[in-house]
Amino acid sequence: MLKSSLLSGAAVAHKSSSTKSSGFTARAIRPAQRSANASKVTCSAQNDEEMQVSRRDFGVAGPAAAAVTAALSALPNPALAAATITGQWEQVDLGLEPGVILLDIAFTPSDPKHGFLLGTRQTVLETKDGGKTWDRRYLGETEEDQINYRFQNISFSGKEGYIIGKPAILYHTTDGGTTWDRVPLSARLPGNPLLITALDDKGTAEMATDEGAIYTTSDAGQRWKAAVEETVSATLNRTVSSGISGASYYTGNFATIQRSPYGDYVGVTNRGNFYMTWQPGQTYWQPHNRSSSRRIQGMGWRTDGGLWLIARGGELFYGDNDGVTEGFEQRRIGARGFGILDVGFKNDQEVWASGGSGSLFRSVDGGSSWQRDKEFDNLAANLYSVKFMNDGKTGFVLGNDGILLRYR
Question: Per-residue pLDDT averaged across 60-69, rounded?
């Protein structure tokens, strides 16, 4: 059971203002032209070491064959051009080592061109030109800990911001990221931090863990107060007769958690067999059966306050009303069997979905119909996250192997 008393951290142990460069300057590059090389990548977002890449090389023998191939590739393809959304995204070369998975990105409200990009293998990058170029940022003692931190989530409110990671680690800034303070987290914290939200009042934030603990702080992480009384495992094992498929004797964690602007949460379990929600004022997480026969890949909130749900096999569903619901309507996206991994809203009408093997889809009618962007079909990466910010003026797609796409 989660204690309702405060979890206290020790005094701030370290302040980092290092801006050492890793010796590279990232640049925006145009995506490669379609070629005869077929690439396929499978990667687990839960473990950056679990990645397998297979390529089928295409050979052309002799100068004559090479000349014919070059001539054919130069010819226009009207059918392809008509079916392709062009010029929407550009790939940014970050110069990262292979295997790095990008996990989150955020910009400071006080300067929309100043932002930070997080990933596995202690990856923290900083931009001051809206994401066109990025420099490596070091947060001090994490390099000395000899622990391969996975920086999971970042959030800003004004110049105040927070970074969380796994194993449990927390950084705090009050100057827009010029300096970062490491704030110790209590060993009694259930699970690893998965999501943090900087709130409006100074020093206030809300943090959720992969075991469903939700905590609030009013002193920048020095003390935390529980908002729920027990973890999701305790809730499900206590309510074995709840009628939720797969809930009995549950021992797993949340794979993803999303928070709405109104403070509502939705979490998807590791196995994807059901989902849970929590709203301010509730004592426990509320379990819900999935609407599809296929397991849930991820869930989140639409701009109108409703839920979206993606199931394995590339199925997309919209909640049939605003807020929490168990009723969903399928939206045909034509994913060709590739998994859809995330949905991002540029505005109420323009929506983007990303998935495996460089899959990108766009809707301009709020998700009723979709068109595939073929520009990155040969991109050997899974695109895990689509994020828009600054009222939709800035957008990015985050993938494995350090793949970053920037919205034009």
Answer: 40
